[in-house]
Amino acid sequence: MRLSHIDSKGDARMVDVSKKKKTEREAVGFGKVTMSAATYNFIKSGHGPKGDIFTVAKIAGIMGAKKTHEIVPLCHPLALTHVDVRYTFHDKEHAIDITSTVKTKGETGVEMEAINCVMITALTIYDMCKAIDKGIELGPFYLLEKSGGKSGRYTRRSSEK
């Protein structure tokens, strides 16, 4: 298997995408935040010790997607055309699913941006709530699907680990 971020000598490199065709690209990331029943019931309304938890976390996730290239060394800076963050609450599990959708029209995909988005969103939820519960669990985080580019469509199967 040949990795595009490794040159012929085995050294890391940024992939040259200058000759690639611009295509519509989209990726959906997933993350989960799990906490105690007391914390979940307290924050489900959206307000915690630092204010509006889910709006602040959504904005942080969007910013995280936009800045992915600044913290992941070989990622290209991208002009994102859309970033969205959605929450699904699970009362029985005391968990919140986070889903991000990231889009661009460019020479390279937005998978890293989608995953970074959900990670930063989850981390911000932790930050907004750590005063009441330091035992909040973050993760797992993964790519649900992506489309566009040479490799085409990918959809995660529920059996993938």
Please report the distance between the alpha carbons of the first and last residues: 20 Å
- Count of the domains: 1
Order of strands across the biggest sheet? 4-5-1-6-7
User: What's the average pLDDT?
Assistant: 91
Identify low-pLDDT runs: none
CATH topology descriptor: Alpha-Beta Plaits
Overall number of strands: 7
Helical/strand content category? alpha+beta
Named CATH architecture: 2-Layer Sandwich
Shape: elongated
Please work out how many helical segments DSSP would assign: 4
Summarize the biggest pleated sheet: 5 strands, antiparallel
Mind telling me the CATH class?
Alpha Beta
Q: Any idea what the radius of gyration is?
A: 17 Å
What is the strand content? 25-35%
Q: Could you give the order of the helices and strands?
A: EHEEHHEEHEE
Percentage of helical residues? 25-40%
CATH 4th-level superfamily: Molybdopterin cofactor biosynthesis C (MoaC) domain
Written overview of the protein:
This protein is of the alpha+beta class and 161 residues long. It has one domain (23-152): Alpha-Beta Plaits (2-Layer Sandwich), CATH 3.30.70. Helices cover 27% and strands 32% of the residues. It has helices spanning 37-43, 53-66, 68-71, 111-129, and strands at residues 23-34, 47-48, 51-52, 80-90, 95-106, 137-147, 154-155. The strands form two sheets. Strands 4-5-1-6-7 form a five-stranded antiparallel sheet, with helices on one face. The chain has a two-stranded antiparallel sheet with strand order 2-3. A hairpin with a 2-residue loop joins strand 2 (47-48) and strand 3. Helix 2 (53-66) packs antiparallel against helix 4 (111-129). The protein is elongated. It starts with 22 loop residues before the first strand and ends in a 6-residue tail after the last strand. The mean pLDDT is 91.
